[in-house]
Amino acid sequence: QVQLVESGGGLVQAGGSLRLSCAASVRTFRRYAMGWFRQAPGKERKFVAGIIWSSGSTSYADSVQGRFTISRDNDNTVYLQMNSLKPEDTAVYYCAANVHNVAYDYWGQGTQVTVSS
User: What is the pLDDT of residue 105?
Assistant: First the structure.
């Protein structure tokens, strides 16, 4: 069973930056893609950004395009660099792994990001 472990959340003022990290517990874990999602209080979980593991190709939600950057290292970790944060970015952020290009199969426990105005 693969576990995804997120880190890097916290409290930041509007306009600030945070970087989230997500590492898989199994180093040789083969995956098609990794993604970041977020869920604000009382709202549905939504896609934020994704990266195809082999090619590094990325995609973003319109709401974060130009402010957030998803990346991966050559080992086992995916990152989400979040700049120019806004209060509406406040949410629990989840890392997820898409193994077979069908659906996101594995999810992290989530990390809280709070942006104060």
Answer: 92
Query: CA 5, CA 20: separation in Å to the nearest integer?
Result: 10
Confidence of residue 76 (pLDDT cuts 50, 70, 90): confident
DSSP string, 14-65: TT--EEEEEEESSTT---SEEEEEEE-TTS--EEEEEEETTT--EEE-TTTT
- Reference 18, options 29, 2, 7, 32; nearest CA is 7
The answer to whether the CB of 64 falls within 8 A of the CB of 47 is no
Yes or no: say if 80 and 100 are a contact pair by the CB < 8 Å rule: no
Residues 75, 80, 53: CA angle, nearest 5 degrees? 40
CA 59 from centroid of its chain's CA atoms: 12
Beta-bridge partner residues of 85: none
In this prediction, residue 28 has a pLDDT band, given cuts at 50, 70 and 90, of confident
